[in-house]
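Work package 3, deliverable 3.1, input record:
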Amino acid sequence: MTLIGRRVPLPLVGAGLVTAAVVALPAVFVLAEAGGVGWAQARTLLLRSTVAQLLGSTAALTAAVTALSIVIGVAAAWCTERTDLPAVRMWRVLVVLPVAIPEFVSGYSWVSLTSAVYGFGGAVLISTLSLYPLVYLPVAAMLRGRDPAQDQVARSLGLGPGAVFRRVTLPQIRPAMLGGALIVGLHLLGEYGAFAIVRYPTFATEIFTEYNLGFDPGAAALLSVVLIVLCVALLGGETRLTGAAQQARIGGGVARQTPPVRLGRLTAPVLTGFAGLVTLALGVPIGSLGYWLIRGGSTTLPPASIWAAAGFTLTLGAAAAAVTTLLALPVALLAVRHRARLTVLLERSTYLARALPGVVVALALVFFALHYVPIVYQSAPLLVLAYAVLFLPLALIALRATLTQIPPGLAEMGRSLGRPPMIVLVRVTLPLLGPGLAAAAALVFLSTTTELTATLLLRPTGLQTLATQFWVYTSGLAYGAAAPYAALMVAVSALPTYLLTRRIDSLSTTAT
Amino acid sequence: MVSMIRARMVQPAWAVPVLTGLLMVAGCGGTSSTQDAGQTITVYSGQHEQTATMLVTDFTAATGIKVELRSGGEAELANQILQEGTASPADVFYAENPPALEALREKNLLSSVDAATLTAVPAAYDSPQGRWVGVSARSAVLAFNTAAASDAQLPASVLDMAGPAWKGKFGYAPTETDFQPVLTAVAKLKGADAVRQWLADLKANAKVYPDNETLVAAVNSGEIATGLIDHYYWYRLQRELGPAKTNSALHYFGPGDPGSLVDVSGAAVLASSKQAGAAQKFLAYLVSKPAQTIIGTSDSYEYPLGSGVTTSQPLRPLAELHPPALTVEDLGDGRSSLAMLQQAGLL
């Protein structure tokens, strides 16, 4: 691999650097704050037995949830994209929807249902149920986009269905699968709310403790440095495993209609599996919301502020989706189309903030905004920027997965016809990338609607989102009053989820 | 659009006439000076949001000073102000516990509270340096599930709850800002060895909960027999569930016990406030009769502290509580209790 690829359009490099600089802010903040901690305090903080325990528990959780998310995500994607699963359009929406349920809602629902979810098992259960869609989405998109005829060729050469999956399908979906797994892993490093509820201490919960009980930003930053180190390890692992995968093909005439794999006698068990998954991931939280809507003593129905909060949430989500996708685009193009050591490094660096707890990212932006651009402090644009920093990796994964499916030969042909690289980008690559852009925007939107920590710190004073209003009521134990906000949060998320699956539909026709 | 949303959020239509009426009865509505009217102050509040909203609405009606209310967790808000430093847009910080205020005072981020405001509240509930004023109070209590325990069998000291007799039957929330003062009280009243032993016993026998909301719900559902909370969590849960589904009750520890600690919610004016006059007015309002009446009758279920107002809620009156003789200074900024928790391997 060369250091910088040949013929990299300079505007693209510039845009990529801007993105990397913005996303690097929290990491810079953490390192600067941690640098202010004295050696003595640093030793006491880091060389505690608790820290070793937390490292172990964080690693165990990350490994278990990531592995389970891969299994569930890939299996579900294969069933919805490759088999004759009945009511497949419905399942495609339902299996994605759990990503729109905030973990503090699902965590609370599970805890109020049974005390069996406390500890490691519960943390794994709740996290897996809300995170597997992040593997499902890119893998399903990849399965749609690639040519199933390859499976048929392999099978005609005598391979059984298991061998076809292992030797043909799996290598092709690997980049998407690993990308999704990376996002799951990074998310787990920084997640706080769900683990606090099920009492599973991780590094992120410890960082919150330093802030909440010690009012000690230096100590919190020092512990965050450990998360950055863990994040770098995950990134290194994913880079090594993914390699320079290239999945593109040029559609040769009319795409052949490939009959889906017949489930046959397996139909009933597979359907049961889907029903079970959806019941656990969607049914439990929604059921618990319904219970509180009906039984809660406090009620705000019809809540005066709910439509204002919903409007503000939608506006923020749409803006964050647009800005984040725009920021991610140059990074994805550089990493896939101009793969070289420096461009890969640039792309990797943009994942760092994802592993930091939301409170760290938010406080970093508090610091930088007030010191350098005070006018934007506690304004909607700064909040949108915070979402972009937090959720850029989601957009990146979606774009990367789609880009690897677009044959680079098309762009090369454009250039060979004498077009400058930027024109080729706009006229050839971007139109083909449409479905990837939509997927990226939808994923960011979904995450934005449920974000709480950064929103509480950075929102314009006096404005509430659905998530902050939900928090206000639940922290006052007014669950009945809180429930409509969570219900609307899920409803608002259903639309982009539907569009997301529709986009996957159209992806297959565009990319081939 | 933005201003429309704001107007709708801070002024529920019913609140203004009701509270203005209250204010006129109390007799301090008409006298407010007008020099600050029309100004807008920003209040960072870690308090019960619905009560805080009622308070600022009433304050605006009385003084003409508008309030931007920013609600959040008190610890997050304190950290935010620490990061903002002197550039903070906040004029007032209204906290839940003294440590959050003390952390800011130690960084010289709070200015002195007007003397008249401080005198409206018994001096024991104010900042020793006069940097914040106590507004309301809460008592540590033991919530117990009525099927699993009875008031008579529960001990007089919170220290006994950590013993093997209550193994698996006592819950607490060490990461709550409400637990720190109790822990500090144990250290001050019983000494360093006793607190180490207590924490070791807790680690061996007690169940950790992430917050008091979860803990009180777990006690009520019977998941755990007892839990150390602040009294108002139980009242708020009871309001939410209704008496029929309330399967728990409150046990008060003995006089002077660390478990009988009464803790203060206070408010302060930030040293960086450019509208200190209006901000001081807000503090004066918080301890005035109308504000204390709102606190005493609202769903926050806290004890009002100022201007002689007592609660009408079904609470054991503040005068009948027997907290240990500890000053706010004794309770510190919370860092020492965090160190104790970390040394004990609980965090």
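Chain B has two domains: 2-135+264-312, 138-261+322-343.
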